[in-house]
Design brief:
188 residues, alpha/beta, Rossmann fold, 7 helices, 26% strand
Length: 188
């Protein structure tokens, strides 16, 4: 069993923002793999969709705790499903990577990402897989990181953002269908 977590913020205000690229990647996986619609689970503080990729049972989860408290929901999910650290994949935005790039990493620091910092704090380890979706554009430094990631994705950037989301979904499938090393070799 694998747990794929997409990071984002709940609510219409954040729906198409850079910070919700992780949720958009989960939507892509769910649709392309024909998983059932996400259902809210108040106890786990997340929206959940379960299905299979090959023979592997997959749980897709969108924490509903807001980005900076993502670890609270992730910890509850890990305990409830009894998931091992090596079976966790977290997909999230990364302002240090240029738009349309992704990077697959394991056992990496938060890099200043508060959602990842929260997960590391709650799980007391950084030994899990992450798929970072680049979202740096020419406006990142002008607006400032915090304001930038909470802005709606502009129409001119939407095709590149969508391509990155699809690539991240493909990387998650590669990790599950083949291996972490195969995904790193293919996507990094």
């Amino acid at each position: 069993m694998k747990l794929i977590i997409g990071l984002g913020n709940p609510g219409d205000k954040y729906r198409q923002t850079w910070h919700n690229l992780g949720w958009l990647a989960l939507d892509e996986i769910r649709q392309s793999r024909e998983f059932p619609a996400f259902k809210s689970d108040k106890k786990l503080q997340a929206e959940i969709s379960e299905g299979k990729i090959g023979r592997e049972k997959i749980i897709l989860a969108k924490p509903r705790t807001f980005m900076n408290n993502s670890g609270q929901a992730v910890s509850a999910l890990v305990k409830y499903y009894k998931i091992k650290m090596e079976d966790i994949v977290v997909i999230h935005d990364d302002v240090d990577l240029p738009l349309e790039k992704i990077r697959v990493v394991k056992n990496s620091s938060s890099g200043g990402h508060n959602g990842i910092k929260s997960i590391i704090d709650y799980l007391d380890t950084k030994d899990f897989v992450r798929i970072k979706i680049g979202c740096r554009t020419d406006k990142t430094d002008i607006i400032g990181t915090v304001d930038y990631v909470l802005k709606k994705i502009e129409k001119k950037d939407a095709p590149a953002a969508n391509a990155a989301v699809q690539t991240a979904a493909g990387a998650a499938s590669e990790i599950i269908g083949k291996s972490l090393m195969a995904a790193m070799n293919k996507f990094n």
